[in-house]
């Protein structure tokens, strides 16, 4: 075991998979000699050369299309979005090509492609650099969507994503790169379609993902001190949603809070509520509570930015209202 930052865990995953398979390569803006905006590809160009760690022009639509074409020919590209918001410029390529080509070619082509990079609300990055695109991509058929949340799951999930024969959108939160955790020295993989039970409990189910996992953890620490016993689930897989794990928890607790950084309207929480109603409606003792970001562009002003996202105190209050104040 050795303690690693999240950006190092991601770098190790890429390094190990590039060493294992010469068809794996990385492309994106400033990923080569500069090492990436968050140093996920630092020094990899020295080891693998400039054709496997490929610096691209500022042309997201073009290099994403090139990566999809490379995947069709049998290579395994990893596209780094310097900021995931920039990939809106490649939305056509991702939706009409990456998501559909396996189907529209009658299975003649597979698209083993990973699109990864930082997203979410940072610290005063402004509206265009603080977007949460998971809901944008969730409606696209043919994609898998993963949101890592710890150094451990970041490495195991990215290695699995690189080996998957389907296009995977891999979200890393901009404020989690400096998290540290002990990682195994031996190789490991994690499933792309499974949620993680962060804490077992029997009083209510709190479902979250990405950075909000840590806001939920802070809230749960307070709730436990006051005698509450919540179960916490980190979705990890945003598409497909692991409704089996979610359903099993709800059948035990009968109460649900969803905590997300995504926007409320049309967000991941909205889809999750729909699936919960489809599978678990008869087990609910109360309506599902959804704590989501405000439906506005993220302000640059720090105080206003903070007000747009959910914080631990709001989670604590929601849990108490749902379960009932304990005396």
UniProtKB/TrEMBL annotation:
**Highest rank taxon of the organism:** Eukaryota
Pfam families xref list: Transket_pyr, Transketolase_C
Q: Which Gene3D superfamilies match?
A: 3.40.50.920, 3.40.50.970
Question: Which stretches make up the Transketolase-like pyrimidine-binding domain?
Answer: 4-179
Tell me which cofactor or cofactors this protein depends on: thiamine diphosphate
Which catalytic reaction applies to this protein? Answer: N(6)-[(R)-lipoyl]-L-lysyl-[protein] + pyruvate + H(+) = N(6)-[(R)-S(8)-acetyldihydrolipoyl]-L-lysyl-[protein] + CO2
Q: Which GO terms describe its molecular function?
A: metal ion binding; pyruvate dehydrogenase (acetyl-transferring) activity
Record InterPro entries:
THDP-binding (IPR029061), Transketo_C/PFOR_II (IPR009014), Transketolase-like_Pyr-bd (IPR005475), Transketolase_C (IPR033248)
Q: Which SMART domains match?
A: Transket_pyr
Keywords (A to Z) from UniProt: Chloroplast, Metal-binding, Oxidoreductase, Plastid, Potassium, Pyruvate, Thiamine pyrophosphate
Q: How does it assemble?
A: Heterodimer of an alpha and a beta chain.
Q: What does this protein do?
A: The pyruvate dehydrogenase complex catalyzes the overall conversion of pyruvate to acetyl-CoA and CO(2). It contains multiple copies of three enzymatic components: pyruvate dehydrogenase (E1), dihydrolipoamide acetyltransferase (E2) and lipoamide dehydrogenase (E3).
Name this protein carries in UniProt: Pyruvate dehydrogenase E1 component subunit beta
